[in-house]
Design a protein that fits this description.
22% of the residues lie in helices and 42% in strands. It has 2 helices and 7 strands. The chain starts with a helix and ends with a strand.
């Protein structure tokens, strides 16, 4: 499995969960500019797949290469509109994405991140750690 295949597995999982969300929801993926914050008035979700580290998993003749990262979900709403919508979005997505397996990618349970405010937007966040292994054949 490549880094891009792992990212695709996670994005596919997020899109599947989006189909079960009752309200219309815009999702902005990392390194995309799909949200115009000047025109956006409803809560929205930003998704970032962050690869953090990798290491050799054992000393056998065909060791595995373990990649670790975190799927960051940021739910944002205009400041002054409360935290209910972002927290509802995060509850829905994190409960369906953590502690699961998507292809070769496995996720751990989510953790809350500190809420932030920036440019008139309030953002609540969760991180969902993940990992996947690649078996390396050494000639």
């Amino acid at each position: 499995m490549s880094l891009e295949q792992a990212r695709q597995s996670l994005v596919t999982a997020v899109e599947a969960v989006k189909l079960t969300y009752t309200d219309s929801l815009v999702i902005d993926y990392d390194n995309r500019n799909t949200i115009d914050t000047h025109r956006q008035h409803r809560a929205w979700l930003s998704v970032s797949v962050q690869f953090l580290d990798a290491y050799q998993g054992d000393l056998g003749p065909n060791p595995f290469h373990r990649h670790i990262g975190v799927l960051v979900l940021d739910a944002s709403i205009k400041e002054g509109q409360g935290s209910s919508s972002p927290l509802t979005i995060l509850d829905h997505f994190s409960s369906r994405l953590h502690g699961r397996q998507f292809g070769s990618v496995r996720t751990l349970f989510s953790d809350m991140r500190p809420a932030t405010t920036k440019s008139g937007w309030y953002t609540a966040s969760v991180g969902i750690p993940f990992w996947f292994d690649v078996v390396v054949t050494i000639p």
